[in-house]
Design brief:
Blueprint (H helix, E strand, L loop, with lengths): L1 H23 L3 H12 L3 H13 L7 H4 L4 H14 L2 E6 L2 E6 L1 H21 L5
Antiparallel strand pairs: 1-2
C-alpha cells in the first residue's frame, strides 16, 4: 500500500512538472496568444463576440435570447471569454454586463497582421 501511494505521488509530480515545463518552453506572448485563440475555438463564443459587436454596447442578459443554448451553457462560454480577457464584465445589481475588450482584440489583430505581412514578403513558392 505504501509503495502504491509513493508511486501515485511520483506520477502526479511528473504530470504537474510536465505541464509547467511544456508552457515554459514558449514565450509569454506565445502562451498568451495560444490562450486567446483557444478561447475563440468554439462557435458559440464566436457568436457571442459577433453579437457584442453588433449591439456595440454592454449587454446584461440578452445574450441567452440570441443563442440556441441553455442559460448555464451561455454562462460557461461567457466565463471562458472573460477568463481569456476577450470580454469584460461588470456587476450591476445581480446581473453581469459584458462588453468586448478592444485592447485584447487589437493584440489578436496585430498578431495576424504581422503573419500576413511576413507571408507577403516571403513568396518562396512553397505549396
Amino acid at each position: 500500500m505504501l509503495l502504491l501511494s509513493i508511486s501515485i505521488v511520483i506520477l502526479q509530480s511528473l504530470d504537474t512538472d510536465m505541464g509547467i515545463t511544456k508552457s515554459a518552453h514558449f514565450t509569454d506572448s506565445q502562451n498568451e496568444m495560444a490562450s486567446l485563440i483557444k478561447a475563440l475555438g468554439h462557435p458559440a463564443r464566436i457568436a457571442i463576440l459577433e453579437y457584442l459587436l453588433k449591439v456595440d454596447t454592454c449587454i446584461c442578459g440578452d445574450i441567452v435570447n440570441e443563442l440556441p443554448l441553455a442559460q448555464p451553457t451561455v454562462s460557461q462560454h461567457l466565463k471562458e471569454l472573460k477568463n481569456a480577457g476577450l470580454i469584460k464584465g461588470e456587476i450591476e445589481g445581480n446581473t453581469i454586463c459584458y462588453c468586448l475588450d478592444k485592447e485584447v482584440l487589437g493584440r489578436i489583430k496585430r498578431y495576424f497582421e504581422n503573419i500576413t505581412i511576413l507571408l507577403e514578403k516571403k513568396n518562396n513558392g512553397c505549396c
